[in-house]
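Dear support,

I submitted the protein below through the web form. The confirmation email said the job was done, but the results page showed an empty box. After a refresh the structure appeared. I'm attaching both so you can tell me whether what I see now is the final result or a partial one.
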Amino acid sequence: MAALFGARVRRLRTAAGLTQAELGAKTHVVSTRITQIERASGAKPTLELARALDAVLGAEDLLVELWPYVYREAFPDWSRKFMEYSERAVVIREYAAHVVPGLLQTEDYARVVLGLDALLDDEEQLEERVAARLGRQDRFGPPNRPELCVILDESVLRRPIGGHAVMRKQLARLLDAAEGHHITVQVLPFDQGGHEAMGGSLTVLSLPDGSEVAYTEGSDYGQLIEEPVNVSRYKLIYDRLRAAALPPLMSLDMIRSTMEGNYRGVHVPSRSDRRRLAQEQLQQSGRWQLRGGGGRIPRRRPRP
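What the results page shows now:
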């Protein structure tokens, strides 16, 4: 993909009548950087540079759209293979042990999660990772979107990633996503105790040809499982998790309750506060009506 990207840059540059030095000057990099890109040698182009090249060369977003595929080449073989499977999957079943799955993350939530990487080089690399993660969500637009079934450990709801405002927005995103017929969200509550997938997250992919693969992931490892016998084992684990999780409607109620209770924010009253305010408004309305008839109603002191 880096070679394809470089070939496109070279063709567009030639068509524009620019030398490598001239293109470098217009995109604020040295000419040797343009040489590296066209020859697919050296460091991969950054997202910022891909955007600059696209704008200068009038590529109409071609280079920006190619960039995520170039970016993935920095990942291990098994990770790239899993990404390729994910792009072709017709059904994605995922258990998330620690954070909301990338396919359902908001931009703010994704930025906080990806920013936790101790090996992150700089802000530019972080923004590249955020863009790549959000780009994966484009698959869920019609008409060929896959079916997505997600089981969230209760800890995913309780852990305040990025603070209350970020979490409230993220939980609202889960509720909105679950309204679609192609996305199902369930919550595995704490009171279900231990289970076979406690070590990390689990994904099972169903492909168009009927085959399936599984993928397990921890904080610093990932494993792609392709052997049918082993995939069947992970399918069974996922089915047990789904059976132990709350049904979809109860799960959404739990997400709403967590959002209102833990992440309601300064200006969003809780359910009990709203009920109390409504009662006070009704009482005040009743007092005004009775006063109109001539009688004075003494005010009650509010309950503590």
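Response: this is the final, complete result; the empty box was a page-load delay. The beta strands are 91-96, 147-153, 183-188, 201-206, 212-217, 222-225.
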